[in-house]
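Data availability (excerpt). The following record was deposited with the supplementary files.
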Amino acid sequence: MSSSSYVHPGWRLSTFLLAVVIAVGGPLIILTGDGGNAGEVTGQQVEKTAVSAGSDITGNSSYSDFVENSTGSQVTYVQLDGDFRTGTATERFARPALSLIKLYIADYVLDNGTVEEKYTAVDMINSSSDASASQLFEKYPAAVDATADKYGLLSTRGADRWGYSVTSTYDLAKFVATLLEEDPTSPILVAMAAADPVAADGYEQDWGTHVLPGVIGTKWGWSDDRMLHSSVSFGTDFVVAAAVTGDAEDLTRLVENQLGDVREQAAGD
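Predicted structure:
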């Protein structure tokens, strides 16, 4: 089964979700396999924080215009062993991908790169190396768009520089879920599971979706001014992605409030 044709049953429910959840970053509506409402997961909404101007994540010009429509908070959760998924109304909105775009670059390089480049791609996931991302994206500028086409990621688009690419939590969760279904020992997943505790730029990698029970691997993303944060994580039977305009603690708080009970219940089953 090809990556582009596979659709997990839970993903077909997303159109219903967008119709019933109307608050940005608001309560999550849990949908079951028959499309019924199984209840709400309430949580503290993380307020949108103003983003200060600064250099973009490639170290170049101001990105304030790029991030001003970053859609507040996004959350997507999918349970792989049943027809269950949930997300915010904003989960499909394109927003700055930050270092999470490195997952898509790595996927392309693993398919098309040299042996040395493949090792660089894996290390890029481990350490979140911006230098490696720039090196690989310079050689393969179509990598993001090609990966989006391969997996059907409709909110994901590349740009002239990798740091200006966009994606959504929906696309991130779909991408990782497909890897888990088709290649559970993918080098990308292994690299996420063996991520360095401190990234190449000195930023700690221990927040966001990483804190949920049962998480095996995580990829994090953040802006240079630390005002945008996002992450995607997986366990043996679930994938979760979240993004927020705010700091790392804001993202962790969003994840714990919105999905803590969901994961604790799933882990106890």
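Summary of structural features: The first strand starts at residue 28 and ends at 31.
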